[in-house]
Amino acid sequence: MNDEQRSLLLELSSRFSPPQGVKLSYGTAGFRADASLLESTVYRVGILAALRSLKTGAVTGLMITASHNQISDNGVKVADPSGGMLTQHWEPFADSIANAPDSSSLVQLIEAFVKKENILLDGKDVAEVLLGRDTRPSGSSLLEAAKQGVASIARATAVDMGVVTTPQLHWMVRAKNKCMEASEPNYYAQLSGSFRCLLELVPQGSLTSSTDDKLVVDGSDGVGGEKLETLKSMLNDTTIEVRNSGNGVLNDGVGADYVQKEKVVPRGFDTADVGLRCASLDGDADRLVYFFLEPNNTRIQLVDGDKIMALFALFIQEQLSVLNKNEDLTVSRSHQARIGVVQTAYANGASTQYLKHLGLEVVFTPTGVKHLHEKAAEFDIGIYFEANGHGTILFSETYISCLEDMNNDLQSTSRGSERHKAASRLLSVGKLINQAVGDALSGLLLVEAILKHFGWSIHRWNELYHDLPSRQLKVKVADRYAVVTANAETVVVKPLGLQEVIDAEIGKYYHFVLSL
After folding, report:
1. 118's torsion region: left (phi>0), alpha (psi -120 to 50) or beta?
2. Which of 46, 189, 269, 375 suits 339 as a labelling partner, its CA being 20 to 30 A distant?
């Protein structure tokens, strides 16, 4: 690091003093706290995002959001060049610079890290960071701090993408690094175009009743509701009514997190909505759940992330089954995809049983989207979802290339055949779904397309399986690290003897649950 770069860091960082007595940790959601405590942290994450861009020679992203947290909170996280989350290898560095007590300590940490990572600050390489924020009032000032952080690294440029959903920002980073147009209109064009393709391929006779044509969406009074209003104007064949799209308080009695945990109707819904297909986004639109109201009841029937995953898996398996058959009905093994479904220990056991009954490979990972995403990427087609509604589908580059070749061959030899339609549907799914991160908007459109394909109501979808009885509680203990788990957090190995006690309790009800 030359003197000019060191002086620039010292000068700009002196404007953003860290709050006293506050220690922050970078997790799956990045940094989150009361917005009043985050200015220095966001500034320093701007530095990290610029360094990550230099290290990888690619565009990175920085998103300012606190997702489903209350409106007084905010947060910041980095999008890697793939569009995914920041590599875990860099998380300790994020923690160290966020908690550095002063400018001198900060610069020392940066100097040591760039040396270890072999990042040339004195070279000719340039860095580019795409910045986004949600609708929180604190976002504007924190965005300025992020810009100053990026500017603290010579030859680094911050590009303000405006108010966007978290998945949009991640999509833009991925698109930019794939040499695609990476603007918000491009995002809408890709989603709406691939959605229309799926609707055009809906089998004849797959008709739903007129009451099932309408979808009512709770926008959580956040950025997702605003963006869905824009997107729905491009969807001529779909009726979507958006409520809670910014006139109320963000995440206050609304949103996917509230609906999924409380299992009650969000603000703005009442008995007049009984029987309608409803959905709820979270604050930054990276989670999605569906629900419908029951007559004479304030509670809802929740159709959560587990059932969204089951619907996606069933549809994709159907298309693969058609695609993998030659005209003489023998299976073509050269094009068979390895499909995997990834869950965590939070998944309801009934969903796991259902997916295995379909003949799908089901694997578990520790809790956290980064673990799910990484495991899903090992398959040709990897589907992952958490019950909270966060998830997506990943198609390997190799399999996408294979699909494109097959689709081209089928177009020339058997255009309009069932195999050709199946290949076209899978390619459209790959374009519609956000392969960078979970995306409530793209996920919602895929759910709607699949329901039309099957001719199903939300009630029919909900009957795929029945959840096993469960209850989730938070128990405070003196030392959370005293409990050690294995096998993707499904077995307790310490304290010794605890798993045996759990097994004994489960054994009292196991056969009863299986009979439900």
Report:
1. left
2. 189
pLDDT in tens, 20-77: 999 999 988 899 999 999 999 999 999 999 999 999 999 999 999 999 999 999 999 9
Provide, rounded to the nearest whole percent, the portion of the chain with pLDDT above 70: 95
Question: pTM for this structure?
Answer: 0.93
- What are the tokens at 128? 């580019």
Q: Is 265 helix (H, G, I), strand (E, B) or coil?
A: coil
Strand ranges (DSSP E) for 234-338?
239-243, 277-281, 288-293, 300-303
Binding residue ranges = 67, 282, 284, 286
The whole-angstrom separation of Cα 125 and Cα 493 is: 49
Residue 316 CA to residue 167 CA, distance in Å, equals 22
Known binding residues for Mg(2+)? 67, 282, 284, 286
Contact 433, 456 (CB under 8 A): no
- At residue 483, the 3 state secondary structure works out as coil
List, by residue number, the catalytic residues.
Answer: 67
pLDDT above 50: residue 329: no
Select from 422, 362, 434, 424 the least CA-distant residue to 393.
434
Residue among 366, 394, 372 at smallest CA distance from 385: 372
CB atoms within 10 A of CB 411: 14
